[in-house]
Amino acid sequence: MSQYRPALYLALLTALAGNAGALPGDSEQPITIRTDEAIRDETRGKTLYRGDVEFRQGSLLIRADEVTLVERARTAARPGSRDPLAGTGVLNIEARGAPAYLTQQFTAEGEPVQARARVVEYFQPRALVRLRNAARIRQGNMTLHAAQVDYYIDKQVIRAFSNPATGRRVTTSIPPERLPGD
Q1: What is the mean pLDDT of residues 50-62?
Q2: Can you give the residue range of the structural domain that contains 87?
Q3: CATH of the domain at 48
Q4: Which of 85, 165, 166, 180 is buried most, with the most CB atoms less than 10 Å from its CB?
Q5: What integer best gives the mean pLDDT of the chain?
Q6: What percent of the chain has pLDDT over 90?
Q7: How would you class 108 by CB atoms within 10 Å of its CB: exposed for 0-12, middle for 13-18, buried for 19 or more?
Q8: Overall domain count for the chain
Q9: 49 vs 40, 67, 86, 87, CA distance in Å?
Q10: What pLDDT, on the 0 to 100 scale, is given for residue 25?
Q11: How many whole angstroms separate alpha carbon 169 and alpha carbon 54?
């Protein structure tokens, strides 16, 4: 079975990345943040949200104990970008929780991707979402568990990393109906 692991892992990553690219119109939706407390530092373009934070834009939903949002002046989105936050002025997002959750619907007919980790980060200049510390991703019956998962939005590339310090490896589960045919 071990000789098939790379193929199974690739099948899951292809299935997840193939569905990636937010719903059309997500990037044109307003960002709504609900929280118990917000602290804005205008000089740094940084806002800290604490206490049951809910960050929403279109089908993107982030829930966390604490979210730090760094902004800059709005810029035009790159043509063809699949990044739902491109052009919004959001530079970085860091969500922390026990765990923090991220959910997004990528196609109208598909199942949403549900992810969780202790830290969820978004780096707009690189169109990168990073899940750190006990990352778990689920779409339908497919799951991926890793110490860290990087998702490059525009490239539609997912990289998952093990944790050598604990010996925990990347674990992927693909239901039989999603396996490549013979």
Answers
A1: 90
A2: 2-178
A3: 2.60.450.10
A4: 85
A5: 77
A6: 34
A7: exposed
A8: 1
A9: 9, 5, 21, 22
A10: 65
A11: 31
